[in-house]
Amino acid sequence: MASAPPAARPRPISPHLTHWRWGIHMVVSILHRVTGHALALGAVPLFCWWLVALASGERAYGSFYRTLSGWFGYMLAIGFTWVTLQHMANGVRHLVMDSGAGFEIGTNKRSATSTLVFSLVVTLGLWGAIAMSRGGI
After folding, report:
1. CATH numbers and ranges of domains, the chain
2. pLDDT tens per residue across span 41-96
3. Residue 137 has what pLDDT?
4. Contact, 61 vs 10, CB < 8 A?
């Protein structure tokens, strides 16, 4: 008995974005990739610029310092602080999940929410402390 031609067999429906309801755990998963790219494409070149300016002498470092000591530099630093903390917290979350724990939907959503809360609270607390110690940013 010959099998039906491929066009006649019903094709399985693979899960697609239209089949899922968005949840915090899905958002945090995508955010983990975004923050990883932000660190790789933003923070690493910025760090390299700092190293080159530091090694190039006083004039080059002065240019670097003037560029990043204004409001733009503070916004960049606050943003990179949050990106780093969010990526780190979600990395720890994934480490726990790699051990086989935390896959229950309620636990998964709570851990995803906790990464966002952690990164926001620590970022705001850190930069609030910096602002208070300097008498304002």
Report:
1. 24-134 (1.20.1300.10)
2. 998 999 999 999 999 999 999 999 999 999 999 999 999 999 999 999 999 999 99
3. 64
4. no
Q: How far apart are CA 88 and CA 116, in angstroms?
A: 11
CA dist., res. 36 & res. 42, Å (int): 10
- Residue by residue, what is the 3-state secondary structure of the chain? CCCCCCCCCCCCCCCCHHHCCCCHHHHHHHHHHHHHHHHHHHHHHHHHHHHHHHHHCHHHHHHHHHHHCCHHHHHHHHHHHHHHHHHHHHHHHHHHHHCCCCCCHHHHHHHHHHHHHHHHHHHHHHHHHHHHHHCCC
Of 26, 24, 137, nearest to 81 by C-alpha is: 137
Q: CB-based contacts of 54: which residues, under 8 Å, 6+ apart?
A: 61, 64
Pick from 82, 73, 84, 11: which is nearest to 46 by CA? Answer: 73
